[in-house]
Amino acid sequence: MDLNALSRYRFRSVWDLPAPPTAVYAALERVAEYPLWWPQVRSVTSLDGTSGVAVFRSFLPYELTVTGRERRRDPAAGILEIALSGDLDGWARWTLTARDGGTRAVYDQQVEVRKALMRRFALLGRPVFVANHAWMMRSGRRGLAAHLRPV
Fold first, then answer.
1. pTM above 0.90, yes or no
2. 17, 44, 85, 123 — which has fewest CB within 10 A?
């Protein structure tokens, strides 16, 4: 059994949001504000105009620290993509399209876990890690939808 393969993940989350793509894109590109609406994003620290460090913690008792570096920012195409390094190594991308008076935001992520604790428990922990990610993404969708609602 390839234990390294157990530390590789591909995720896709689809968020239907009640706001136009321009508003969703504007919220998603303001990464420093994620902790205001996404409880599992504990902090974001800008390093420069195109990179920063984020700390995540969902319901499991560990934090992930990652550095994100911009790979693609294309408002016309509705795409935001970053390269990830640190506790996760890989990439993540938002793709936005107009849908039914709102926006469909598709989040794709392909990573390999580098955090030693998660690698050690890769075999037995994988289903729990996947559930942890799904819970975090559901919470993020709810938080962003509330953040985008007009006051």
1. yes
2. 123
Q: From CA 103, how far away is CA 67, in angstroms rounded? A: 27
In contact, 113 and 119? CB cutoff 8 Å: yes
Contact 36, 43 (CB under 8 A): no
Residues 6+ away with beta carbon under 8 Å from 80:
25, 28, 29, 72, 73, 74, 93, 94
Contact 86, 114 (CB under 8 A): yes
- CB neighbour class for 126 (10 Å; exposed up to 12, middle 13-18, buried from 19): middle
122 pLDDT more than 90: no
Tokens of 61: 């008792």
